[in-house]
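Severity: low
Component: inverse-folding endpoint
Summary: output formatting inconsistent between runs
Steps to reproduce: submit the following structure tokens with default settings.
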């Protein structure tokens, strides 16, 4: 009897916890993933993904109960130099085809401050999945002044090793470490309550 009551109580808590998380969808026009790496000691080379899709189940009262999923087409990478983009798509690196994605799905969120958290998740890239931690900041949440809809903005950083994802060609001359900076905006989905 006690175990049945406990199970029922847990089910109700889980449902009410989930109910307080609200769905936000990424604004592709204001969401970017910027990566940079050292090139032979001479320069810092930068590239970017933008225009990608994703959603956040955002619980403002209990951020640890939030979640995020994002996907971006590999072939949409921008580096500012077409021959480099073409090279990245070859078998030297991604061997990418149309439809190949980089994905991130959160698995845990540890709140570290009033507006900060470590978001752990599974990053899948080049057919390899590894757990990574994003050092994230909630920039702002509120009504967007032009769209007149609930909006949220986040920044995050992490460092990856290319070789972890079988993308280590030319390391260590071209840095194995890649710095990642993420900035996203998301709007509350229609019918998401509140």
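Observed output (run 2 of 3):
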């Amino acid at each position: 009897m006690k175990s049945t009551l406990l199970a029922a109580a847990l089910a109700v808590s889980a449902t009410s916890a989930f109910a307080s998380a609200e769905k936000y969808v990424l604004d592709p026009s204001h969401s970017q993933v910027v990566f940079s790496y050292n090139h032979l000691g001479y320069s810092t080379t930068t590239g970017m993904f933008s225009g990608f899709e994703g959603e956040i189940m955002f619980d403002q009262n209990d951020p640890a109960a939030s979640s995020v999923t994002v996907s971006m087409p590999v072939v949409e990478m921008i580096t500012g130099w077409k021959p480099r983009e073409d090279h990245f798509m070859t078998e030297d690196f991604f061997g990418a085809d149309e439809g190949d994605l980089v994905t991130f799905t959160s698995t845990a969120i540890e709140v570290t401050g009033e507006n900060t958290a470590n978001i752990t998740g599974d990053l899948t890239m080049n057919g390899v999945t590894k757990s990574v931690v994003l050092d994230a900041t909630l920039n702002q949440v509120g009504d967007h002044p032009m769209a007149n809809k609930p909006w949220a903005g986040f920044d995050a950083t992490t460092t990856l090793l290319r070789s972890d994802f079988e993308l280590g060609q030319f390391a260590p001359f071209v840095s194995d470490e890649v710095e990642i900076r993420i900035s996203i905006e998301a709007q509350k989905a229609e019918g998401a309550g509140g």
